[in-house]
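Journal club prep, shared notes

We agreed each person brings one worked example of a sequence with its structure written out as tokens. Mine is PD-(D/E)XK motif protein. I'm keeping it raw so we can talk through how to read the token line rather than staring at a rendered picture. Sequence first:
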Amino acid sequence: MTNYQNAASVEELWRRMAERPGRENRELDLTLQVPLIIGCTPDARPYIMILSQKRPWPINGLEAIDVQVGSRTSPIGENWSLTFILRDWSLLHAFAEICLAFADRIRTASSRNSALREIYSTVDQWHRLLKSITHTNRQAILRGVCGELLAAEKVMRLSGRPLETVMQAWTGPYGAPQDYSFDAEHRYWEIKTVHSSARRITISSPEQLNIADKQISLITIVLDTPTNNDDKQLISLPRIIERLRQLADDPYLIGQCIDNGLNALGLDIRSDIAMHTMFEVGPVRVYDVKDRFPRVTPSMLPNGVTNLTYTVEQESIEPFAITNGKAPSALEK
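Then the structure, token by token:
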């Protein structure tokens, strides 16, 4: 029996199991006094299962991990299970490290009961360490990505470029000043996802609207929390991706560009939040950033001023609007 002593080997085992989900599992280390088993659920979610002779208590409040207490019939009295199921594949490495931490705690525990207590202690420490990674932050990232991808079709139509070219120019996930960058032509598009009630737009840096050597267009797109239950009139990340693939001559390239961007953001398309979060789409407006467009540029900053973020009143940029309209055709079937 192989003992998996590093996170990479555990990750690789989960990836292999995900190819045949729900069909196999493996005990991580046969020398442990409390069995620690890893596998994948039928829907290809990595899990860690700990078997116990006494009933574990449930754990709540974890965003990326579903914790389940189960019962089973065991000839040796291990009639209970505590199972940790990963919801977000982008966190697989951290999940593997938690798995190895569980194994280390069990290995050094003085008894089966103390081993189970050590599991809860480990979860509590990781939870407190990582609780700044909130559901709200993930929701904001997802909302911004949906806005950027919805805008791809608008950029395609206004620029006259193929969708494949547009998606290869998607630089938003990589920290570029603008979200779509056609460097050879010095042509750029910045996307802002706003609420319908918003009166201001946040500009993340003086470089974002700096037209000293660029031509920049600003697109605002309204994405709101749904106010009705008509699922057909709402969008989600999977629906947007499906629409873009339908529009493309090369769907594989589109998928590759999107996957790379989502990976850069740490956003897993298979996670619950990405699969099931819906948005109501409102108007899209396009603005031409010209010399008199209200903004802060790098040349305006005094020495020593860095990392400047500022807001612009939406009303003040209306004279620069070149188009506005209904929701993008990602809603069309």
